[in-house]
């Protein structure tokens, strides 16, 4: 199964009907199984599986580096894809203990206090003090459309990319799920040994708390998103030392947290 499906459709535009085909993104269930036990099932674009496995493992704290994964098997089933991930012995032991603690009564919503604490865990503090100019953000955003091949074809997927002043667009990943796109980007960067501390993290989606937490894991000092953040995302970014720029368009953007990383090139409106 590839990432794109060409669907037959009937188009009605301006009162005129026409038949043809449209490219739409594939979406399938992807199970992430660690050492024989399923940890999560995500609806995702069936592509970049190794990046997904590494990035998800990093963001969930299951692994600390790509080398903690001993092997990865991509198993196609009638219901979707099973990513069978096997960890090294030293990383498998904490996972087994974690499963043991989580075993207990069912029917409790988020499965008890421990699960709530996992969801609301403090984000890692980002120490990078790199600075960017507004023109850097404009340049980074301008690089996105040409790199988003799947979105250009389907108009239906999210993208997450890393841009640096020295390299330009370092890497980009796309997926039907915004979290998945960022996990795949995180995995790609980790597998390449690329640091995010001197770059802009570009998101084509809104910014929720999980997106900020994932940004903190890879050490991204600045998030630039085309859509708006949630209030909890702002509080999390503030605590994590992350500069959060959102509602980024051709004509500018809005800075919500830690504005010191964006060098002033504008005249302040104090009205």
Automatic annotation (TrEMBL):
Keyword check for Zinc-finger: no
Pfam assignment, any one: FdhD-NarQ
GO MF: sulfur carrier activity; sulfurtransferase activity
HAMAP family found in the cross-reference section: FdhD
Function description: Required for formate dehydrogenase (FDH) activity. Acts as a sulfur carrier protein that transfers sulfur from IscS to the molybdenum cofactor prior to its insertion into FDH.
Family: Belongs to the FdhD family.
Identification of the protein by name: Sulfur carrier protein FdhD
């Amino acid at each position: 199964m590839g990432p794109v499906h060409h669907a037959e459709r009937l188009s009605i535009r301006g009162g005129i009907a026409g038949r043809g085909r449209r490219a739409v993104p594939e979406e399938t269930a992807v199970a992430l199984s660690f050492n024989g036990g399923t940890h999560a099932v995500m609806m995702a674009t069936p592509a970049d599986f190794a990046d997904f496995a590494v990035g998800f493992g990093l963001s969930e704290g299951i692994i600390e580096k790509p080398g903690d994964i001993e092997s990865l098997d991509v198993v196609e089933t009638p219901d979707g894809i099973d990513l069978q991930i096997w960890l090294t012995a030293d990383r498998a032991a904490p996972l087994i203990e974690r499963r043991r603690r989580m075993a207990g009564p069912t029917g409790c919503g988020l499965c008890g206090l421990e699960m709530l604490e996992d969801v609301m865990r403090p984000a890692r503090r980002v120490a990078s003090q790199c600075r960017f100019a507004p023109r850097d953000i404009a340049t980074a955003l301008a690089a996105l459309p040409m790199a988003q091949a799947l979105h250009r074809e389907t108009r239906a997927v999210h993208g997450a990319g890393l841009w640096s002043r020295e390299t330009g667009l370092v890497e980009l990943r796309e997926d039907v799920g915004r979290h998945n796109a960022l996990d795949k980007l995180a995995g790609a960067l980790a597998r390449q040994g690329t640091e995010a501390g001197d770059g802009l993290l570009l998101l084509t989606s809104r910014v929720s708390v999980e997106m900020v937490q994932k940004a903190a894991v890879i050490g991204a000092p600045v998030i630039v998103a085309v859509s708006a953040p949630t209030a909890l995302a702002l509080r999390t970014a503030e605590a994590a030392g992350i500069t959060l720029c959102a509602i980024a368009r051709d004509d500018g953007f809005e800075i919500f947290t830690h504005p010191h990383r964006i060098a002033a090139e504008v005249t302040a409106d104090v009205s």
